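User: Teach me something about this protein's shape.
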Amino acid sequence: MLTKTCKYALQALILIASLGKNEYVLAKQISSALNIPKEYLNKVMRILVEEKFVKSLKGPRGGFCLAREPREITVYDIIKAIDGIDFFQDCILRTDKCDEKNPCALHFYWLKILSQMRAVLDRATLHELANEVKAGKRVLQFVDNIFLIDDFKKQIGIR
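Assistant: First, the predicted structure itself:
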């Protein structure tokens, strides 16, 4: 469903949003924490900067932080920016388009599923996801084990 680039972008954004407003984190810290190859993460972060999800700051206190409020960024926004919306428009059975005049066997079921999925992704914000991580309700997979965001913050020196 989602490309690796989109999955890495979502993970990185959730991590950055979990750190708090205006907390900068280095790409190598994100790469290490999420087990994303640094070269690949650099590509992802360039896209996120271009799409204005994050801003970057060079220098010893630099890194990446959110460019907008996490409440303003939905999962659908991220998917749309990274992977596009073809998934939400493609037929599930045919290689060509199907439509109401010439529907495939699953057309109307698929439209309903896609509509519901889009609605859920459009409501899910980085703010909510980050809060679930911080509260321990959700975890991000890290290199050595699964740990909460507070442990990561301690590891990189943010209190």
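Now, about its shape. Residues 107-123 form the longest helix (17 residues). Strands lie at 54-57, 63-66, 140-141, 146-147. If you'd like, I can walk through any region in more detail.
User: That's plenty for now, thanks!
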